[in-house]
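Subject: Protein record for review, amino acid sequence with backbone structure tokens
Category: Structural biology, sequence-to-fold work with a learned token vocabulary.
Format: Residues in single-letter code; tokens as whole numbers, each standing for a residue.
Body of memo: The sequence and its backbone structure tokens, given next.
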Amino acid sequence: MPAHILVHAGSYTPDTGGDGTGLTALRLDPATGAMTADPGLPDVPVSGPSFLAAHPSGRVVYCTNEAESGTVSAFARQPDGGLTAVGEPLPSGGANPCHVSVHPSGEWLLTANYGTDTAPGTVGVHRLDADGVPVELTDVVVHEGSGPVTGRQEGTHAHQVVTDPEGRFVLAVDLGADAVFAYRLDTAAGTLEQAAVSRVTPGSGPRHLAFAPAGDVVWIADELSSSVSGLRYDTATGTLNPVSRTPATMAMGTPNQPGGIVASPCGRFVWVTNRGADTVAAFRVSGAGDILYPIAETPSGGEWPRGLSLAAGHLLVSNQRSGTLAALRILDTGALEQRAPAAAVPSVICTVTVS
């Protein structure tokens, strides 16, 4: 078994409605699933780090600072794995940034801004310098649209922005518009040009997507309809074509909002966190690769599981309301098992593991 794995966790802070301190460093024991805070790496104070991402080089970690005047921050990784802030937080290009990713070139930072009841969802692009530090906001695109769910879909709410596996298109998932926007990124200017808009089931509230390893299928966690949608992805046009929908939980009658979604590198399984049922649901992928069949649901190790990420044969589950970070071992069947107690991380919502 490899040595303990360093994991960085982000938590809501008092100024963003939580009890966390910002960024916390923990060690994951791959043999047992035990997670413990690293006493040699003190917490890093930062406001509301609601999503984390790492530069392809592993030298820099980024976070969104979720507030109405949204910003993004960058941290250089030190030889011991600790994080040190570099540069100043930069405007994210919108309100309440909730997701950030790095373009595969390592030259651009992409941020999804959820917006507010009156401010639309947007996607911001930042240029990264040779050290991976954000230096300027080069573009902001504003989403248009709405959905039928009162109180959640009067306007657009960008919730995730990722680059497809071939690097052709940048996809932005919008919960408020029931849509996935596809953009071409001009890698010289850092600007986005809309290539396609794929409308999904009205009222489903798409939150996050995960690509199948082959890149031809996308799985979407539908926050508002408590489902998981399977869609065929056209790599030539950036469009998505719905194929299937599966309930995210078997706990029928329990108000539930799917949060994080992960597809296995082998392509056989998909996992989704269920906020309400407080489980992580495991699904088997059909032979055709675009339909899901439930395998099992495992308690999430706490309450209100939000973030979900892969690390050393485990899924790390950020249980926001209980303030617990659990490591669930992935079994050969795709089912999950918790073998060690969850670690206490107040208001934890996301993690990143940097190789």
